What we know:
Rossmann fold, 374 residues, single chain, 18% strand, eight-stranded mixed sheet, 16 helices, Oxidized Rhodanese, domain 1, 2 domains, elongated, alpha/beta
Amino acid sequence: MQKEISYERYQRQMILPGFGEHAQGQLADASVLVIGAGGLGCPVLQYLVAAGVGRIGIADGDSVSLSNLHRQVLFHTSDIGKNKAETAADRLRRLNPEIVIQPIAENVSSRNLLEIISAFDIVVDGTDNFATRYMINDACVLMNKVLVYAAVSRFEGQVAIFNYPTAQAGRSSNYRDLFPEPPGENEILNCADAGVIGVLPGIIGSMQANEVIKVITGMGELLVNQLLTFNAMTNQLYTVKITAKQETAQLIPQTAAAFEKTDYAWLCASPSTVNEIDARTFNNLVQKGNIDIVDVRELHEMPAVDEFQHYRIPLAELKTAYLQLKNDTVVVFCQSGKRSLLAMKFLSEQLGTTKRIHSLQGGIIAWKTFCQTK
Length: 374
């Protein structure tokens, strides 16, 4: 049921060819959750509120700081110390009192995110760290929500639409098709460390808002299965194609319970020490016996492993299940060797020097390839 529309407020966009009262009504009936009221979230919120999106949620537990103000232009110096979500909501209601704005003055987590996004049609990622990006992506896949993604660093920004329903593949590519697994801690700097030119989040956030409006109204060509990159120093724009992959879909928790158990901050941490072993060394250890081998992949992941006895403990469950390991030597493995490094780090921290803990280099794929070519 469409809400009553103020023609005078929205007249400039309603007179556009193909837009009219119908598209304005679609905006009025839509709901959008913006996660992060920072450099990206500020322009997204301002333009979606001004455009007349009927209900907008703002999730952010952070407070305004002086260092925010060169790019987060929704806030004033007098707002320093105030919660971003509540402050943004108060200011945006003055911009457009005809819509509903819901501040959520807390940071999203794997414990609350599914419930929060369930109340909205579209999710906008305005965050600036990898742990939260992967968490938001996985939640949107689980909940079948369209995700409008963006990121900025230094002089470059990127925009994409993830998990959009398509006739051919059910759903379009998601963030894990672009970056299957998180980079290690400090491998890629965030804005706080790398810096960002102040106008860039405004440009990229406006592009995000544009994509949201296009998703709601069905107008134009969407950034589905493609990533747009913009360089503020050269004004160059280019897009790259992204393909949805079955193997990356397997990296996403398959149930709400599995999602809520996943510690995304831990997944994006770097192992403090690396003690990898190659396939040949691993085979020697297996032959000697007296070894605990742990597959930390999700239970549905392929290929199956029946060549040796081992435990199946998904990475998210390792924190509560590691005490069943009894032997002095432990080898953990995953698909490609990245998650097993995280598992090795955790086990080393918990078990100290009482056990020799190793990660299988290259994962089970590399091991099977080695065995086939011996």
